[in-house]
Predict the 3D structure of the following.
Amino acid sequence: MLVEDWDQLTFRVNREAYRSPEIFERELDAIWQQTWLYLGHETEVPNPNDFKSRSLGGRPLIFCRDSEGQVRAWLNSCPHRGTILCRENEGSSRRFQCFYHAWTFNNDGTVAAIPDVEAYEDFESLSQSMMLRSVPRLEIHEGYVFVSFNPDVPPLLEHLGDAADYMTMIEQQHACGVTTLPGVQQYSVRGNWKLGVENAMDGYHFAPTHNTFVGYLRETGFAVTDEGQYAYNLGNGHSLLVLTGHGGRISMVWEPRFGEDERIRTEEHRAEMVERLGEKRAHYVADESHILFVFPNLLLFDIEGLSIRQLEPVAADHTKVRAWQLVPREEDPAARALRMKTVVSFVGPGGLATPDDIEAYEAVQRGIDATAHERRAELDFSDMSRGMGDEVKGVQGRSIDEGAMRGFWREWAAVVGGDDYVKITGERPAEFLEGRDVR
């Protein structure tokens, strides 16, 4: 699946990885059933009895806060006969009742009622054995709720590694913390889920693909540049793009299109951050835009605004995407209105960026069929070699190189296929990580 040639400095990915139903099924077993998956943000269920229903790795789940305020994740399946238990997307309820036979369960998983209970000899034992099935593992970091279907998965913070601190940075942007706004953007893409990861970690495409947005920024007085922007492999398949020249950030980095009132608010907020976090930490939190990928299904776009994006594979050529907006818990109404206008104008499904990305995403999926069944097997590969020379030299990779994608693909191959999936020619350099002391 991966061919690395360190003599010729080339890195190629077999296109079967994007289109093979067999490989897709192997991914579901080796990745989605084994590691930590992002389920949602705890502020999506802010009050006791709030719930959401969604699927991860094709498995329906109930994401809720029980009556005592504890965050839970239940398999959305009645223990009686397997019927989908919760058929609403969201709401507030102390109990979930199965429409088929009216078995009813409390949101802490216990049995609330079973019709005609006299038909059962030992109701106490039955009610214990018929509690809702929870996911084996659930842990929360900075409000981000992760679950795993593998009871033996390592602790979440071990999985997150260096990615954890960049999630903390988002929480530290405002003294009041952050929260998700009600509502979710949902759309489908006719493409493999890994193309969504590549697109997010690909600074190379920004200027040519989003030329309309780039032109708009320049017309409003913002100098767009790729200089001083880097990519980092954070280990365990996680990666980070650091961007400083692709647009401003509400309340962090001002640009002329935001207006004078926002300039004043940004200066005041920046001063507050320095006092609260110190100059160095405030610089990393405020002055850089970040796109963070947490393997395998979480993307955090800390750019013009804050957007959470979750990938849900459906088939080898079909992916569902869910997106939420993160905002300060407390914010000037004018700043909030500007924030939402700015966010949806770029990363929203109808913005200046996301439709471009979806078209590119789907065009790749369509294009890889052109080389399917190609007798010249060497042609059925996608190239991700950009920046390998710097990798050999120990020079930090740029955001417009493809090093972040290579880090993702190496982790993918190791998890899904092991040594059988990788062919290496020449001597692969020790993984180069400059390291960033951001505290």
Summary: The chain has a mean pLDDT of 91.
